[in-house]
Amino acid sequence: MENTPHQLQECSIPQRAFRKADASVLAMDFFEAAINNIFEDDLFKLKTPLTSSVIHLSRRVMLHIKDEKFGKFAAETVEQLWSITKNIRGTTFSDKVKSEMWHDFHKYRSMDKTLRRWQKLLNEVDIQREAEEEVFILQHALEKIFSSLLATLLESDMPATTLDVTPEAMTQTEDQALRYCAGYVQYHIN
Predict the structure, then answer these.
(1) C-alpha torsion 34→36→37→42, nearest 10
(2) Which of 54, 51, 104, 113 minimizes the C-alpha distance to 81?
(3) Residue 157's closest CA among 25, 19, 20?
(4) Within a domain: residue 129?
(5) Per residue, what are the HEC states of 94-148?
(6) C-beta atoms surrounding 189 within 10 Å
(7) Rounded CA separation 43/45 (Å)
(8) Taking a C-beta distance cutoff of 8 angstroms, is the pair 67, 121 a contact?
(9) What is the rounded distance in angstroms from the CA atom of residue 171 to the CA atom of residue 130?
(10) 9 within some domain
(11) Does residue 169 lie within any of the structural domains?
(12) Nearest of 159, 160, 150, 158 to residue 26 by alpha carbon
């Protein structure tokens, strides 16, 4: 059968450059970077009992970070956060979409289930801690992981743009016109 201009042609839908599988591969990197960020963040440079205990807990977490249990936690967390990004995949990134996404994120981070998973992980690797610092570090880590996931998702899916700027010399007429305008403006200002 011959194709006519009136028949619909099958076309391929553009695929996202960054997928869930890619996010899973980067999960542990996101998690480790989030914990390492605590040592650099200005908030944690304040000398308070809470920030000191959060830094202390972060050091203990970093001692166990290569444990497969942390890898599993990071992968599950990124999987949950990936599902939150559904609002921005395939749509215009409007204020409404952003608002819904952040609402879903804050709902996830405040769920008891999320905190219990974190507490279970710390218990499994035998990290002693106080309740206040464990919540603080979890909240900080979730925010940093989600921010990293979003940045990677949006950055990799943006079209490559390059500006082809080749410097051109002005013609003599353009140069004279520019000099005339500059002199005219200066004359009228004085």
Answers:
(1) 150
(2) 104
(3) 19
(4) yes
(5) CHHHHHHHHHHHHHHHCCHHHHHHHHHHHHHCCCCCCHHHHHHHHHHHHHHHHHH
(6) 6
(7) 6
(8) no
(9) 72
(10) no
(11) no
(12) 150
Rg from Cα positions in the chain: 26
The reply to whether 66 falls in a domain is yes
In the chain, what's the furthest Cα-to-Cα distance? 79
- Round to whole Å and give the CA distance between 80 and 86: 11
Per-residue CA distances from 73 to 7, 24, 140, 158 (Å)? 50, 11, 15, 29
Residues in the chain: 190
Q: What is the pLDDT of residues 75-110, one digit of tens each?
A: 999 999 998 887 666 556 678 888 888 999 999 999
pLDDT 10s digits, 107-164: 999 999 999 999 999 999 988 888 888 999 999 999 999 999 988 887 776 555 555 5
Residue with tokens 């920030």: 51
Q: What is the number of domains present in the chain?
A: 1
Range of the domain at 47: 20-157
- The dihedral built from the CA positions of residue 38, 41, 45 and 48, taken in this order, carries a sign that is negative
33 vs 74: CA distance, rounded Å:
11
φ, ψ dihedrals at 58, nearest 5°? -60, -40
Amino acid residing at 120: K
